[in-house]
């Protein structure tokens, strides 16, 4: 109608039309401008910082409420010790059980710290279900309850995960507006910034947060991401502290655990040996903590009867552990010897206190405030109490962090470190009551400074980071002890790194996440290992002349994510690599129902012609054929709506039979989910078809299939990665490691003048590195079992895999080579 | 004799022999153990830290002495103002002239900051003569004199360079003991640590040093290098400060510019807008500084007459600039309005002072100390003096940092920033004399805090770093202003980064160092540029069937560092790449004297046989032939001692002639040093041979050469890089940039299913990135001219190049395509 109007040439219409066009143009332009702005990094980062600050503040508020409630209950029941004990114990048991149950039901991925998984994700591996809204809810609720229980748990690791979840959800949300957030490398950049925000708004420590997140999650860090982290973390920390001011908790923006050490003479040069001792002892302590933590996990899993029992009653283990810990810390009971009534925060405040507890030899004239009073016991010395506190909290923390609730280990370790530092500091103060420096002015020793040093050193040792020093500066608001802290942290790191992996790497190994271990420092022998020493020489490849049968065989062997494409088996010139899914689709398409139907139709046409020529057709038979055709056509149309999925494939039974007899030493991909999925589907489909069809039809189709399989592959529709990463035989392990970590590679082909001679995957590299390392991980559970156990898609695929396994065993009698099993499961990890 | 002894079986001998073997074994083992220990990183880092701390301390000591001497002279001559002026002015002029002259004579590479060059070196580019002992001496002596002159120059950038020099020299020194320091990637890791040490021991700021060096020098940072930096920088800072304690300068280890701001209430929330204003203004100021600095360099170089004059009298420019600056800061003259008598350090101390200068409205009851007194002028307001100080120092610093002496821009900018912050702080204090917070207790405003914020913000803006915040914390020993500082630094960075490159990137562009520019933030269009848009499609390649003539032609075209090897011109399947030097060696070897001599000998033998058969030989002629042979044999043996160098090559004149007539549109590699070197050598050699030989011989050899050139290349002895980095047409610019920076690539081939279709080099990438950027560098001097002008090897090769040029022009009359010239010079940069 518009064209009609315009052909009649009416000027009013013309003007209106133009105005309309212009206004639409303007509106579109404005909208596009706004959209493009929405896509900008800084808006995203501000939003992220804001959201995380709010989350952090609200969570802190709720945790404080929960802790207060426990104290209130405990205080209100002071008439009856048994009631008091029951209240003291039941409260955390209920909270932890709820946390564990909630986490388990909503999103089991939310359990634990989250830093190991973020490290893996930032390495480029996609962990399923790890960055969803469900996980966010589970993590936030679970963490609040867990911390509200008063158990020695931390919130730092989970906060890294929560911030990443926030970032991922924000990305999704903002991609409704702008299209920029689809870029994968950008997403990873944003996740890296989110990790910094997580630590930053947890401790109100933007600089320490950025550095800690870099140290903990990255191998190679893009400096251009640096400002993102700083920007978002600073904004987040700022809002977090401003909220506290608005809430009248604070007068102005200050540090979380503000200290008031003197500025003029923070410490004497002669005190440095004591600080060094703290560092070295913390190094050993940190390694011991990691070892103990792993030992507990290992023990719980090795004991099959316990394990079975616990698997059935999932909430029993958390409840028992909580019961044990709260019983021991019951203030009127054993808790009186370890300041059981203090929360983590109160404990830290008392440790960082400016005054010396032992100065006047425990006399009464020392003006105790409420927190410090907990360390004063009529029967026991303050040293004894500190030692008991350290020992008890040590194993309690190591035990508590194995619970299946969202929790971190940083804060408990930090507290233990502070206690140890305080112990050394108090000892020094008792030893030199007048201070060390005797040149006139007396500067007494400040045990609080020792506590700060100890906290930084022990947390640094457990996490293998140096930036705990910066976190400590920001937490206390004082930097006067910078040199002692740096010295202690570096010494602690040196000791701990040579004894044990970091707590996060330990968890990565326990969970068998697909992560490349670090090259340890000073391992010079690594410079002498070459790629040719570790590469797999028996590479699966397809050539330009490959038939569909070759493709099929490659798919059956199938522990590879990608397959190499070479020019020919003689020249072996590497042309590129093809994804497994591509091959599968190609094969499925070639033997597709459409093509088979075409064949059947052609055959039917030919037969009908033959029949019509030779004899009169039985009308019944003809009708059946037509029915068949109609039914198939409908289903074909249906399947054409979902062309991307490998749906409606041709039965592959003959091919399966052939290969299983031909290849004796075959590997069954027991756990490759996509693979088994397809084949199970094929198999079921095939059985259905078998039942529906007369025997003769099936045999003809078998023949047709055999024919089709011997055809050469058509290359036009292939999606080939023409530049897979290539190494040379002489490339050193060191360089290979660098390249793999830099580019986040999964595998690389080894070529010699363009000829493919081998392949190196993450697995070989990991083996090579771990083989030359003294520290070894433990192999307890199957990889990613914690995710697969309860993931919805995981469970179904596993049951299907077993089904296929049975079928397979019935049809063939091949032996499964056991040593190849971890191989298949490794590729499973990668494909997840 | 030993075997004799043992066969006679004497038990004493046996025992002694065994003991000897054992002891030798032990000794060897011990020595090996020690050697292996010597190679360890931590020993290296401790040595590096120790040496740098000593260097820093001694330099600081000398600089303080020099500055004191000036003050002493100035103070001693207070009877006569003219004498006083002469002393005040002559002293820095002499020092700066000496510094410039010394640097120019010993090692011109030592001039300037050093950070831009270190950034380039850490990028993987080898800059000649940049890490030698000579440069070290020049830098240390030059820097001491330059800073001793009292000009607004910094020591931070040069310290990065000095530390790198130290590390490189230590590496060399330690490679006498262990063999590990030959690894190139290791060297770069050590240099990265050295940069951290440089900043760390300059400011006694280990954490800030590590972060600053990362931000300033790296694009992608290996987190495993992190501990190295921290370890060495902490150790260095520790020793540096301990030396001060031992020297009785300090009572204990404290910060360099210790502040004493109150801890309870460092600032009010309502003061934050003022801090934000400081940040934004500093951003503009920083950009202006970078622009001004570049403008001065540009102006000095554009003015040809000035330039020529200055080139002749190299010391005149520094002397004139110094004269101008010292005249203006002469205390009894204009210097009284800008606190001219204070050194940089004193100025900073007065800015960071706790007290408010304007509190009582400039009344006398304020207790001025010596430094603050400089800001009090009977006629002028403190605000006026501060404004004059800022404006004057701003252009003075921008001018002074262009001097050809070792100097940095960080410290002057830091001082200006502190002055600006102080100005804002004093204004605030004057505006709100009772402080902003009116809820009962009065907290007055602390202008010193503003000065700290301003210093961090302006230095952050000029260098485009966030870690200046951390440096400030460590310098002042207080972290209470963390949030204002972070906010100001981030805002300053945001403004400055969107206006101008950092001072270091600006210098990189001015000096045309081969560095890849950063992708700016928020440039989304970069995600849409593909490799196919920027790649060069006309790739030079050789095939498996190439003749030596093809090789020769490729070498003549020669602006490439490496040449692609493809299977054949039809298939274009990329097999690898070959270095230019390899090709040259191959060609030289094929047409070598040995092979030619063999040919001559064969020919001579054949002739002799023919002669002896046909006619009687003249004895004289036969003797001459034998002599010839003997002489040639000797020279052959000589040359066999140096098989690696392309020495004693065959004359290539006929080949040169042929190609020059065949290829009209040829490019002459005017500045490729290795190339011209070889050819000049060939040419001279050829002329010598021509004179020594009869004409007939030469013609025969020419024939033989023609024959040889048409032979196919023998591939067995080639050293091929079989895995050059490959990209795909669809690779985005963003990803390409990442890969190039991650791997330090120089070029990458673009392939499509194994077929070579293009090449991308650093140059194309740089163009593509800069083409889409608004901020552009200046192109004033030929690349690396500052290094080439005076380098010993550089000069000789340049003169040779001209020589060759003349020869070439005489023989051929080809036109040189002008637009290809930057191309050749670019490859020159890379090959240096």
From TrEMBL, chains A, B:
List, alphabetically, the InterPro entries matched: CBS_dom_sf, Cl-channel_core, Cl_channel_volt-gated, ClC
* Key word Lipid metabolism present: no
Q: What is its main location?
A: membrane
Compositional bias per record (Basic and acidic residues), positions renumbered to this chain = 802-832
Query: What keywords are annotated for this sequence in UniProt?
Result: CBS domain, Chloride, Chloride channel, Ion channel, Ion transport, Membrane, Repeat, Transmembrane, Transmembrane helix, Transport
Residues in a coiled coil are none
Q: Which residues lie within the region annotated Disordered?
A: 784-832
Q: How does it sit in the membrane?
A: Multi-pass membrane protein
Q: Which GO terms describe its molecular function?
A: voltage-gated chloride channel activity
Q: Which residues cross the membrane?
A: 15-35, 42-66, 86-107, 159-178, 190-214, 226-246, 272-294, 315-334, 378-396, 403-421, 441-462, 469-492
Biased composition of type Low complexity is found at: 790-799
Record's subcellular location: Membrane
Q: Which domain of life is it from?
A: Eukaryota
Which GO CC annotations does the UniProt entry carry?
A: chloride channel complex; plasma membrane
UniProt xrefs under Gene3D superfamilies:
CBS-domain, Clc chloride channel
Q: What is this protein called?
A: Chloride channel, voltage-sensitive 2b
Taxonomic source organism = Cyprinus carpio
Query: Which lineage do the record's taxonomy fields give for this organism?
Result: Eukaryota, Metazoa, Chordata, Craniata, Vertebrata
